[in-house]
Specification:
By secondary structure, the chain is of the alpha/beta class. The chain has 2 domains: 30-248 and 358-410, Alkaline Phosphatase, subunit A, CATH 3.40.720; 256-347, 2-Layer Sandwich (Gyrase A, domain 2), CATH 3.30.1360.180. The chain is built from 12 helices and 20 strands. It has helices at residues 2-22, 54-62, 77-86, 90-93, 114-117, 128-134, 168-180, 196-204, 209-231, 286-295, 336-341, 385-392, and strands at residues 34-40, 64-66, 69-70, 100-102, 107-109, 139-142, 158-159, 189-194, 238-243, 249-250, 256-258, 268-272, 276-281, 300-304, 323-327, 332-334, 349-350, 364-367, 375-377, 380-381. The strands form 6 sheets. Strands 7-6-8-1-9-18-2-19 form an 8-stranded mixed β-sheet. It has a 4-stranded antiparallel β-sheet with strand order 12-13-15-14, with helices on one face. The protein has a two-stranded parallel sheet with strand order 3-20. β12 and β13 form a beta hairpin. The longest helix is centred in the middle third of the chain and has 23 residues, at 209-231. The protein is globular, with a radius of gyration of 23 Å. The two termini are 43 Å apart. The protein binds zinc ion. Residues 42, 77, 198, 202, 351 line the site of zinc ion.
Length: 414
C-alpha cells in the first residue's frame, strides 16, 4: 500500500517536472476542442484584394492570414486536397495527379470515374479523419478528396458522395448540424468544400468580373457560416480554417506549346495533362523523345523521371511516368490535333504549374480560440496543416512530411 502510494507520488512528480521542462506552450492543451476546415477550390492567395470581402476582413482582423498557402506539385485539385488531408507529399501518398496510371493495379484513375474515386488502393497514408476516428473522436466530411473511399478500411462518421448540385448553404447547414449534435453523432472535425471559385477562374480568367462575383459569393458564405457558428455556440470552442487547394493563372491561345513540332505524339501516352504533362513513351523511344523535347525546351521544362527536381517530392513513387513536362506559367502543352479541334482553346485560367509560382499559391485564413488575433504570417506549405489539426484536436498524429513547428507561430502562446 505504502509502496503504491510512493510510486503514484513519484509519477505525479515526474509529470509536473516533465510539463515544466517541456515549457513550450504548444504542448499545452488547446482551448478549442473542435476544428472546422473549409475549402474554396481555386481561391488564389491574392483574391481577397480583388473584391469587397467584409466577412473575410473580419476573420483576418480577429485571426490569422498567411501570405499564401503553398500547394504541393502538381498544383492540381485532387493531389492537393489529399496532401492537406494526410500531410504527405505525392511521392509518399501516391496521389501524384488528377489523372494517374498504376502498373501494378493495371488501372487508371480519373476524377470522374466513381469506381476509382472510391477505390482505397489509390490513397496512401492516413487522412486526418481516420486519425480522429482512431483516437475515439468523430469526423464529418461534407466533401473532401479521399473521404469517399474506405481508406485503411475506415470512413468518417458522416460523409457524402460528392454532389456538385448540393446548394452551398445546405453544405454549411449539414456540417454545422454535425458539429452541434448533442449525441453520439456529434463530430470533433468537420470539413466543407465549395467548387464555384475554381469553375469561374477556369472559364473566365482571373481578372474577370465573374471571378470577382465568385469571391463576393464566397465572402457571403463565410458571413453565413460565422452567423451559424455563433447561433449554435460553436465560435468559442471551434478553430476555423479556411483554405484552398491551389491558385489560378490566365492561359491563352497565344501561349501554346505544340508537341508535334518536337516529337511524334504517337510515340507517347499522356497520363496527366497540361500544364504538368506526365507521359510514358513507346518502348525503345525514351531517349529519342526526351532529347527532342530537351533540344526545344522553350516555355516549358522537361525531365526524365529520375531527374525530376527533389523539391517536387514526386519522383519517388512508382506511379510517376517516364517523362514530366512542366509548362511555364500561362502556357499550355498539347498535341496539334487537340488545338485544331478546339477553336479558342485554351482560354480563361488553369493551374497545375510549378508550385513555387505565386499564381499557384492558395488561401489560408484561420480564426478560433487557439489562433492569434490580427496575425499575418509568411507563406506556408499545405502539408503542415495535418499536424496542426492533429494538435488542435489532441489526437496522436500519423507519420507525415509536415510538422507543427513550421506553423505553430500562428497559435497563441508561441
Ligand atoms: Zn481547377
Amino acid at each position: 500500500m505504502r509502496l503504491i502510494k510512493k510510486v503514484l507520488l513519484q509519477s505525479a512528480l515526474i509529470l509536473v517536472v516533465g510539463a515544466g521542462l517541456l515549457g513550450c506552450s504548444v504542448e499545452e492543451k488547446p482551448q478549442g476542442d473542435k476544428v472546422l476546415l473549409v475549402s474554396f477550390d481555386g481561391f488564389r492567395a491574392d483574391y481577397l484584394s480583388k473584391a469587397d470581402t467584409p466577412n473575410f476582413d473580419k476573420l483576418v482582423e480577429q485571426g490569422v492570414i498567411s501570405e499564401g498557402l503553398i500547394p504541393i506539385f502538381p498544383s492540381k485539385t485532387f493531389p492537393n486536397y489529399y496532401a492537406i488531408a494526410t500531410g504527405l507529399y505525392p511521392e509518399n501518398s501516391g496521389f501524384i495527379g488528377n489523372s494517374m496510371y498504376d502498373t501494378t493495379m493495371n488501372a487508371r484513375f480519373t476524377m470522374g470515374d466513381r469506381d476509382q474515386v472510391e477505390n482505397p488502393a489509390w490513397y496512401g497514408g492516413e487522412p486526418i479523419w481516420n486519425t480522429v476516428e482512431k483516437n475515439g473522436k468523430k469526423a464529418g466530411t461534407m466533401f473532401w478528396v479521399g473521404s469517399e473511399a474506405p481508406i485503411q478500411g475506415m470512413r468518417p462518421t458522416h460523409w457524402k458522395p460528392y454532389d456538385g448540385s448540393m446548394p452551398d448553404s445546405a453544405r454549411i447547414d449539414s456540417v454545422i448540424k454535425w458539429l452541434s449534435y448533442e449525441n453520439e453523432k456529434e463530430v470533433d472535425l468537420g470539413t466543407v468544400y465549395f467548387s464555384f471559385v475554381d469553375s469561374r477562374g477556369h472559364r473566365y480568367g482571373t481578372d474577370a468580373p465573374e471571378v470577382k462575383e465568385a469571391i463576393q459569393r464566397a465572402d457571403d458564405l463565410v458571413g453565413y457560416l460565422m452567423e451559424q457558428m455563433e447561433a449554435k455556440g460553436l465560435s468559442d470552442n471551434t478553430n476555423l480554417m479556411i483554405v484552398s487547394d491551389h491558385g489560378m493563372a490566365d492561359v491563352s491561345r497565344e501561349r501554346i506549346v505544340v508537341l508535334d513540332e518536337m516529337i511524334n505524339p504517337e510515340d507517347v501516352e499522356m497520363i496527366e495533362y497540361s500544364p504538368s504533362v506526365m507521359m510514358n513513351v513507346k518502348e525503345g523511344k525514351l531517349d529519342e523523345v526526351y532529347s527532342s523535347l530537351k533540344a526545344n525546351e522553350e516555355h516549358f521544362k522537361v525531365y526524365k523521371k529520375e531527374d525530376i527536381p527533389e523539391r517536387f517530392h514526386l519522383k519517388g513513387h512508382p506511379r510517376v511516368p517516364e517523362i514530366l513536362m512542366v509548362a511555364d506559367v500561362g502556357y499550355t502543352i498539347n498535341a496539334r490535333e487537340y488545338f485544331d479541334r478546339r477553336e479558342g482553346y485554351p482560354s480563361g485560367g488553369a493551374h497545375g504549374f510549378d508550385n513555387q509560382a505565386p499564381e499557384m499559391h492558395a488561401l489560408f485564413v484561420a480564426k478560433g480560440p487557439d489562433f492569434k488575433s490580427g496575425y499575418k504570417m509568411r507563406p506556408i506549405e499545405n502539408i503542415h496543416l495535418y499536424s496542426m489539426m492533429a494538435h488542435l484536436l489532441q489526437v496522436q498524429p500519423a507519420k507525415t512530411d509536415g510538422d507543427l513547428d513550421s506553423v505553430k507561430v500562428m497559435l497563441k502562446g508561441n
